[in-house]
Amino acid sequence: MNVPQPLVAGDLIYITAPAKAIEKEHVDFAVSFFENAGYKVLVSKNCLGQHHYFSGTDEERLEDLQYGIDHPEVKAIVCARGGYGCVRIVDRIQWASMLREPKWLVGFSDITVFHQHLQRFNLPSIHGSMVLNFKDNTQEALTTLLSALKGESFSLSATSTQNKPGQAEGTLIGGNLSIVYSLIGTNNQPDYSDKILFVEDLAEHLYHIDRMFYALNKSGILDKINGLVVGGMTELEDTATPFGMSVEEIILAHFQFRNIPVAFGFPAGHLNDNRALILGKKVRFNVEGTTSELRFL
Q1: Global pTM?
Q2: Cα 290 from Cα 73, distance rounded (Å)
Q3: What is the pLDDT of residues 219-236, one digit of tens each?
């Protein structure tokens, strides 16, 4: 497996907006953040544009991302924000130069489309904070992002009374649950065999979570994975007549007869404390009682 090289001072970071439009103040803040950390920054041509909901037309957003992929000096591509739009361009991207000389691609939420596609090539990427969120992020979120870019070792831990104990190893995979669900059976679905699956989501109804896990179950994905890491399940909604189960109970019901570890509450997702995860990297996953740890190997 080709792995992106760790960033060093003076390397070039490319900021682009492959989905929803973003305001200039957020981009300016991110540029200053990376420059203060010792990097050079290039902002894509259409990053601050707007075409209805999007930062540009499909062609403009595709052109911007392709430019960063093909640019010989760019070492990391940081997405400005998610929202929606990545699936509209993913199959038109030429990934050849990324395969020859891998570079980091950073983002979460809708950027999960790209993470899933890159896993089909065994290319690691970073599920981490985006330009939109830098101002509000915790120090830990930004520190782990820089650590991931620089190739420094780190681990993540969490606490929950709902955990299912166990130990496992495997390659970390996943991202936003709604996006993972939407790509089941498509040409962007990766191989889930012997993987540690990470999921998070935002503003979904509880019954939607149940429906998505039924799809993961019925498609055979839950039979292939070695463990499940649940990040932020943020601003979930119930129906007027309550669904009757918590999100932890909904998820655990699908693992009642599966002997793999499951852990809740990981600081990653639509949270201010959105710490970086290196997808495509092998991890050791340990769940003991109320505590859990994800350690990158």
Answers
A1: 0.97
A2: 45
A3: 999 999 999 999 999 999
